Amino acid sequence: MARNDWGWTQHYPLVPGHEIIGRIAKVGDKADKFKVGDLVGVGCMVDSCRECSPCQHGLEQYCEVGNIGTYGGIDRFDGTPTQGGYSTGVVVSEDFVLKVSEKLDTKAVAPLLCAGITTYSPLRHWNVKAGSKVAVVGLGGLGHMAVKLAKAMGAEVTLFTRSMGKANDAYRLGQAVWCFLSMKTR
Question: What is the pLDDT along the chain (186 residues), one digit of tens a residue?
């Protein structure tokens, strides 16, 4: 974002931050799913057009008009740049807000709004269930989440890794099947 590596037009000032956990401070006149004080989470989008085919089928990330990012996007109603979770407040369409249980540790919930969604979406898309076979390549920020989610869905998971340390980490996550990849250098 700072160097515009992705080629997006940026509008400044820009306040980043996704994986947002917070409490509702205000509720718009047309919103009825949440009330002031509710503990909620927001991922990487705050709105979309809601009218194109992908939006109509629950695939807002593929919005043909352009989904509105948590930060660095342009609000479709007033044209102002969206500001992220490190700002003093964010404006989010209620359809992009998730209720968070008061019983959960908010520090543990926040990563679910990025790495969790990133890895859960394909598992859901491919209908992973008990008996499914899932391969995970690497055990980084996404890989460990994929292993945990796929195991929770009852899948048989195989981890591909080049690191014995990561294989041991996978074992601690309840993943006993792994394939060690050796890399030869010249």
Answer: 667 776 777 777 889 999 999 999 999 999 999 999 999 999 999 999 999 999 999 999 999 998 999 998 899 999 999 999 999 999 999 999 999 999 999 999 999 999 999 999 999 999 999 999 999 999 998 999 999 999 999 999 998 888 888 888 888 887 767 777 766 655
Cα–Cα dist 55/52, whole Å: 5
Give the DSSP H or E segment for 55. Answer: helix 53-56
Please provide residue 144's backbone torsions phi and psi, each rounded to the nearest 5 degrees. -65, -35
What global pTM score does this model have?
A: 0.80
For tokens 């796929």, what's the residue? 150
Burial of 89 by CB count in 10 Å (0-12 exposed, 13-18 middle, 19+ buried)? exposed
CB contact at 8 A, 98 and 34: no
Domain boundaries, the chain: 20-104, 115-180
DSSP secondary structure of 129-178: -TT-EEEEE--SHHHHHHHHHHHHTT-EEEEEES-HHHHHHHHHTT---E
What CATH topology corresponds to 20-104? Quinone Oxidoreductase; Chain A, domain 1 (3.90.180)
